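Section 5: illustrative case.
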């Protein structure tokens, strides 16, 4: 019975390359998917490309994975699919070609997928009456129209599959949905029909279990993180599929843990409705799925069902929202919180005297409520038992000059405020705020192209 094994090589831009390299060298896989993109990553890349047209993609894929183990992957016929192309897919593909030529890898085929960037189509879509409704129900799109950095649709597996059909050894994309990087090889290998929703759903969930790298094999593991062996050598998950089965495992001789609980955590990650998990390729019903241990570091996943894919595609628009400044001061026991709170009050009184006009000011205390916000334990016992507390003041404004007013007021509090203060995190500076406008776009507005470069 035919079996295809795919490894999850990266979970985000900046992830460690160690597990991917180890997998190429030690695991019996035919494919690897490397995910580099989060929602705002595209905006960051767009800003980079605006400053330097040669940038706009994740160079880590080339410098940290291909240069270390790319030749070996090619020799072992391990084909790699990645969305490292970001906002500059062609630039990324060209860089890979230059590397392969320098390595003498004649015949190496680089596939690349275009079509997710809809910046040029935006005026036509607006003329046609598309209003780009905010999925969070916030704002009017016309208010941000002139502040946009990027407009990218979450496209599906088709472009990647098209490159694989043309013999690509590596496929580079822009904003392809994470799990589609893994579905494409499976559909290509097994020959699934475009409307075989149950098989497509299995392929998507295989990708979903791999797309976050180490998070699917014991990293960020809430259930029992102490039980994860050799986390300093964390291996990333591998999906092995036949026509009828799907199992999750990992490479030999590495750390990490693949068990029912670790897979369940990743299985439900970012799934809003388990009976309707919407992706560009299929609407997945995982409400009756079964996950069970069938061996050491081996879990079988079954009873995944699929339904017709949605008529629209998710569209992420990154835009300039304004500016922010964040300042911090640390305070030591005793009365750490009381001193930090009083210091914040002093600073805000000085800001009032300076006439600072800010749209939002957020004050929190690291070590107390900066993460838990309104549900933090603010009891008398909790406040008096703090060994230390960091005052954090964040100012947001559409005017950078207003944000800058608070910067010279932070460091003087070391001597001009409550006792025990010390400068924390370095001098503040004004930063641009890039915001996300989540919306949808008609599927037929997106035209996907699969292209090949040959060394």
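Designed sequence:
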């Amino acid at each position: 019975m035919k079996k295809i094994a795919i490894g999850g090589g990266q979970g985000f831009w900046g992830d460690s390359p160690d597990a991917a390299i180890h997998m190429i060298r030690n695991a019996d896989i035919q494919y690897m998917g490397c995910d580099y993109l989060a929602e705002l990553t595209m905006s960051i890349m767009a800003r980079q490309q605006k400053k330097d047209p040669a940038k706009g993609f994740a160079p880590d894929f080339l410098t940290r994975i291909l240069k270390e183990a790319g030749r070996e992957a090619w020799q072992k016929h391990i084909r790699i699919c990645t969305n490292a192309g970001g906002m500059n897919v062609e630039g990324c593909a060209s860089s890979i070609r230059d590397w392969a030529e320098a390595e003498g890898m004649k015949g190496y085929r680089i596939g690349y997928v275009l079509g997710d960037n809809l910046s040029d189509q935006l005026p036509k879509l607006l003329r046609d009456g598309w209003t780009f409704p905010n999925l969070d129900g916030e704002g009017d799109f016309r208010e941000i129209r002139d502040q946009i950095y990027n407009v990218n649709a979450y496209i599906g597996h088709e472009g990647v599959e098209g490159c694989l059909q043309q013999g690509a050894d590596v496929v580079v994309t822009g904003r392809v949905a994470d799990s589609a990087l893994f579905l494409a090889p499976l559909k290509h290998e097994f020959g699934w029909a475009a409307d075989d929703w149950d098989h497509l759903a299995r392929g998507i969930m295989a990708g979903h279990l791999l797309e976050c790298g180490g998070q699917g094999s014991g990293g960020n593991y809430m259930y029992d993180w102490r039980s994860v062996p050799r986390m300093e050598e964390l291996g990333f998950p591998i999906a092995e599929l036949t026509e009828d089965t799907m199992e999750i495992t990992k490479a030999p001789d590495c750390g990490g843990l693949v068990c029912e609980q670790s897979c369940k955590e990743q299985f439900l990650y970012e799934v809003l409705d388990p009976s309707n998990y919407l992706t560009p390729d299929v609407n997945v019903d995982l409400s009756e799925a079964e996950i069970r241990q069938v061996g050491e570091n081996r879990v079988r996943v079954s009873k995944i069902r699929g339904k017709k894919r949605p008529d629209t595609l998710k569209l992420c628009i990154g835009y300039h929202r304004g500016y922010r400044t964040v300042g911090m001061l640390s305070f030591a026991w005793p009365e750490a919180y009381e001193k930090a709170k009083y210091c914040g009050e002093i600073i805000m009184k000085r800001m009032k005297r300076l006439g600072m006009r800010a749209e939002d000011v957020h004050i929190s205390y690291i070590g107390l409520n900066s993460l838990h916000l309104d549900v933090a334990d603010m009891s008398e016992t909790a406040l008096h038992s703090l060994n230390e507390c960091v005052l954090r003041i964040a100012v947001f404004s559409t005017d950078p000059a207003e944000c800058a007013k608070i910067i010279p007021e932070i460091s003087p509090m070391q001597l001009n405020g409550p006792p025990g203060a010390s400068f924390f995190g370095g001098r503040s500076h004004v930063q641009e705020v890039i915001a996300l406008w989540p919306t949808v776009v008609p599927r037929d507005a997106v035209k996907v192209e699969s292209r090949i470069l040959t060394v």
